[in-house]
Amino acid sequence: MINQIKFKSLIKDLGMMFIPLNEAQIDIYYDRLKGFDDSILEEAVKYLYDTHTYKRFPMIAEIRDAAFQAMRELPEPTVDELESEFECEVCHGIGRMVEEVTENGGYFHSAEKFCICPKGQREKDRRAEWKRNQRRGT
Ligand SMILES: [Zn+2]
């Protein structure tokens, strides 16, 4: 989702290449296109510089098409981006899970442990680090 100030500046960029919109038109364009992210609309503007062959300002439908085109052509997400979107099915992104533990004699209790997912392992490392610091008294 793009904010209105950023959107207006992109529309003004397009207005330098094509016949500019008036303020009332810009408001309608914003209402129809605000669901796209900044980066997508920035790419859409560049795409329209390259492909829009009319002097008139691109129609809302043309900017939408350009935005969808930009979404298709966006680079593959990095590992970090994938991991931040990845939700672990075991811990649901919390990094910890509760496990039933059986002791000798069949006595059950629940124990909280770190999940095996990247998030859980990071939490585990952080906890180990904290323990080391505690022992050192820092
Ligand atoms: Zn997990």
3D architecture notes:
The chain is mostly helical. The protein has 2 domains: 4-73, no CATH class; 84-136, no CATH class. Helix content is 57%, strand content 10%. It contains 6 helices and 2 strands. The chain has a two-stranded antiparallel sheet. Helix 1 runs parallel beside helix 3 (38-51) and helix 3 crosses helix 4 (60-73). The longest helix has 19 residues, at 118-136. The mean pLDDT is 87. It binds zinc ion (ZN). Residues 88, 90-91, 115, 117, 119-120 line the site of zinc ion.
Strands, helices and their partners?
Layout: H1 4-17, H2 23-33, H3 38-51, H4 60-73, H5 79-85, E1 96-102, E2 108-114, H6 118-136
Antiparallel strand pairs: 1-2
This protein binds zinc ion.
Zinc ion binds next to helix 6.
Q: Characteristics of this structure?
A:
138 residues; mainly alpha; 2 domains; 57% helix
Summarize this structure briefly.
It contains six helices and two strands; from the N terminus they run H-H-H-H-H-E-E-H. It has 138 residues and is mainly alpha-helical.
- Return Rg in Å: 26 Å
Give the SSE order as H and E letters: HHHHHEEH
Bound molecules: zinc ion
Biggest β-sheet strands, sense, barrel: 2 strands, antiparallel
pLDDT < 50 runs, ≥5 residues: none
> In order across it, which strands form the biggest sheet?
1-2
- Strand tally, please? 2
**What structural class is derived from the secondary structure elements?**
mainly alpha
Question: What gap, in angstroms, lies between the N and C termini?
Answer: 44 Å
User: Helix tally?
Assistant: 6
The average pLDDT is 87
Provide the β-strand percentage band: 5-15%
Globular, elongated, flat, extended or rod-shaped: what is the shape?
A: elongated
Helix content: 55-70%
The total domain count is: 2
